[in-house]
Write a structure and sequence with these properties.
alpha/beta
Length: about 230
Amino acid sequence: MFFVGIDLAWSERNTSAISIIKANGNRGELVNWISKIKTNEEILNWVLERIKNEPAVISIDAPLIVKNLKGRREADALVTKLFRKYHAGAHPTNIERLEKFGGLRGESLTKLFEEKGYSNNPYFKPKSEVRAVIEVFPHPAIVVFFNLKKTLKYKAKKGRKQDFLLAEFRKYQKDIKTLESKEPALKLPKEIFVDISKLKRKELKEYEDLLDSIICAYIGFLLLVLGD
């Protein structure tokens, strides 16, 4: 069974990241990853080359169903209500907003996977072999997984100095490594934990996306092993 995490960029002009966990029961191992991939077709082909259309939960950090022209979806409002105090609320998602950034990309990618036999459906029985695509949001998950009072501020934003960002990144690396001892357990290769002080700005962004994609994959793993 495979668990695929996709940190999907708003537009195909920017790079996305993918992580693949191969699991046996309650134990999983990160077996494939990439942080420099762009188009939906490239993402689909890269994933299918590695999972060979086997049962898999494909967890995508992007809106996968958007029917509202304006405003926000009920799910976005609920997540924001529950996680605002942790700085993990959701951005408003609507068709007008997405069209400004590259369109309904998550829906388009989901349709490509549906054509290969994967269904856009989060309602599946724990410990079952499924071919499912689900929408995930890493920030609230990170808060819960690592028992944080607020989200880690590892994303580059105005006013955040480099030393601060690197310190937050190191906390994120340390937290992700604890997944090796959680339930379900995730074995992580040593090469995932790079020396971030040697990364240039673009490389740091790609590494950020990669770590987020690991969380996406782990959410699917957790959901299938332990249920909803």
